[in-house]
Amino acid sequence: VEKAEKSVRIMVACGSGIATSMHVVVTLKEKLAAAKLNVTIDSCSVNELLDRSTGYDIIVSTAQVSFDVKQVVFNAIPILTGIGEDELLADIIAKVLELSQA
Amino acid sequence: VNIFFQQMADAIAPISDFLTGLGIAVLVPIIIFIIAMVLGQTFRKSLIAALTFGAAFVGLNLMIGLLIGAVAPATTAMVEATGIQRDILDVGWPVAAGIAFSTTAGALVIVTSLLVNLVMLLTKTTRTVNVDIWNFWNHAFTASVVTLVSGSLLFGLFAACVHAALCLIIADWQAKKIQEFYGIPGISIPHGWAVTSVPIIIAVNWVVDRIPVIKDIQWDEGTIRQKWGALGNPIVLGFILGLSLGIFGGLLRDIPALLTLAVTVAAVMVLLPKVTGMFMESLTAVSEVAKKFFANKFKGRELYIGLDSAILIGHPTTVAAAIVMIPIVLLLSIILPGNRVLALGDLAALVYFVSMVPSLSKGNLFRSIICGIVIMTIVLYILTMFGSSLTYMAIDAGVELPEGATDMTALSAGNWITAIFFQIGRLFSGGA
């Protein structure tokens, strides 16, 4: 098994960068640590994304991102509702693996 | 009914006196710890949650001091220079939420709102499971302000229970519409402020639909988002607001002081949410186990997961409307006769105030702005009625306010459910 070298940077966004994003950050930290992945996770409000997402590899957002960003954007609502959560986490883990070995 | 509440209040008084005597910084973390443990959270996570709450409270205390300390001289000078009497400063929802959870009544609301939800699910009077614990701050605010004005903890908690129940009922009512409009199945929005905007939006739409020409207006939001999107960034908005406040406060002759004020307001706009984030992080320990509890208890029933209105605010119409409304709300707060509130902190959170409009108005920007103006006018007058309540709540919670501080409030606390109970509570305490 190849060991992940590069730390993948994830920006979690929600309405204010406070409430739901915090929940997503806590969940992602737990699950990605369990998968032994090397990630850095930060959070901000969706309005700050345009200015603050530079240098991040993945965006995970609970609110709709209504402008163009360079990164891949995952819709985080399944983490809040629990419906489709496992599939979403699997997708994110796959993306992190892909980026960390690139 | 009054006598019944009075007797209950007398019976509960010694207990609430003891609890209040403990001091908020100790009491609320203990309550959080107990709730988390009872719901089945691990000892370690419960302890960390309790301590995080205590730390958040300390941080909030610092932030309030910084904001009020920096802004108060400018607002006082502005009043002297222009004669505009706006003596209650909108410090924004992060402060209101932190204070609301930091009173005895507010902390107990975490229990009562979960109980209201449980009872309504058991009696099949709702389909919404609301584990959005951080937004219980709206119920906590109702509990705190009604307790303050009525002098009865029990009546305060009763008001919060009604607020919680109305949230679930309105959330159920709007659920299908929201699910279809945003394409998110299985959810509803029982947010304590957002639900109160639904009847107002329906009323405004009813009126606008009956006015020829006006009813057909459609505005394009793309250009607004592209050109003015930076205003939506709290640090930029804070800087501009600090600058305007300083200019009105006569600081143009003292440029270093003016720029310092602008940078301080920008700093608070960015730092405050981080501090409030710690309150939310603490409550994650509770919402995590509450979610599991409800999922096991009501397995097999078709239920809606209650979510924060934050998931709706990315809608292009809402983003554009919030930007257009920043100057409008500031202007409203200055020109509305009899209003005492100066809009500031929650100008960064205007998206929330119009988050329910698109699903009720087919995503029409013009309607969002019209509804926003009506909503914010109502909010400002409700807050003028609440007066110094948030300041007194903060003092009760043990926040140290700087000498000669202006009174505080938050636009996000202005809703008609809280207002109705505030008035009832005022009557019941003899109009004090």
In short:
Chain A is α/β, with parallel strands linked by helices.
Weakly predicted, low-confidence segments of chain A: none
Rg of chain A: 13 Å
Number of helices of chain B: 17
In order across it, which strands form the biggest sheet of chain B?
5-1-6
| Share of residues in helices of chain B | 55-70%
Instruction: Provide a count of the helices of chain A.
Output: 4
In the predicted model, the low-confidence regions of chain B spanning at least 5 consecutive residues are none
Q: Order of SSEs of chain B, N→C? A: HHHEHHEHHEHHHHEHEHHHHEH
Shape of chain A: globular
Cross-sheet strand order for the largest sheet of chain A:
2-1-3-4
Mean pLDDT of chain A: 87
The averaged pLDDT of chain B comes out at 88
**Beta-strand residue fraction of chain B:** under 5%
Largest sheet of chain B: 3 strands, parallel
Keywords:
heterodimer, A: 102 residues, alpha/beta, 4-stranded parallel β-sheet, 4 helices, 4 strands, 22% strand, globular, B: 432 residues, mainly alpha, 3-stranded parallel β-sheet, 17 helices, 69% helix
Helix and strand topology:
The complex is a heterodimer of chains A (102) and B (432).
Chain A: E1 8-14, H1 19-34, E2 39-45, H2 49-52, E3 58-61, E4 72-75, H3 77-81, H4 85-100
Parallel strand pairs in A: 1-2, 1-3, 3-4
Chain B: H1 2-21, H2 24-38, H3 43-82, E1 88-90, H4 93-101, H5 104-122, E2 128-130, H6 137-150, H7 153-182, E3 187-188, H8 194-208, H9 222-228, H10 234-248, H11 255-297, E4 304-306, H12 316-335, E5 341-342, H13 350-353, H14 357-361, H15 365-386, H16 389-397, E6 407-409, H17 416-428
Parallel strand pairs in B: 1-5, 1-6, 2-4, 3-4
